[in-house]
Amino acid sequence: MSPHPLAEILARHPSLTALGFEDDPQSDPEQAAARSKRLQEVQSSADHWDALCAWIRKHLPPQPRSRGYFSSFALKCIAEEELGSLPHGLFIAAMLHCGHRFIRQGRHNPNAYFPLDKRQVVGLDRRAQRRRRARTDSSEPRTAGKSVQTAANSQPL
Asked: What's the pLDDT score for residue 135?
């Protein structure tokens, strides 16, 4: 039986954890243990793998030529609107598995930057914003144009 694709990607990119890329030296045993725990978080979230890869294939196909690079964290936030909470490192690993190439900016930056079609990403972001707005609107009390007063601001000074 072949290993899970996530395990293969984590082996190829040993600095990838739940928080993204972590390239700082882990000389302190406490830091090394914390990094190991974050790596386990990515591996334990593999149950989201199939849904995440399907979402990426549908909404973010690899682009052979692109004029813009987009942050893995920003893209993950867009995906979370449909899929729920995801570890940053899992999103990066899934993008790599789906055939995306990436660049990094600086050794201490946890993000990967993926070349994608700007119109497509902007469209996804707008859709995510509408979802957030709809969720916020449905959770706020309706006041028919009147401001809501609390006991604290209704007391005389």
From this structure: 82
Structure tokens at 151: 């006991």
What domain range includes position 78? 5-23+39-135
The pTM of this model reads 0.77
Q: Which residues of the chain have pLDDT under 50?
A: 142-157
Within-domain flag for 16 = yes
Number of domain units in the chain: 1
Question: What phi and psi values does residue 42 have, to the nearest 5 degrees?
Answer: -65, -45
User: Residues of 105-119 as b/e, b for ≥16 C-beta within 10 angstroms?
Assistant: eeeeebbbbbbbbee
Q: What is the pLDDT of residue 29?
A: 74
Those residues whose C-beta lies under 8 Å from the C-beta of residue 26, and which sit 6 or more positions away, are: 32, 35
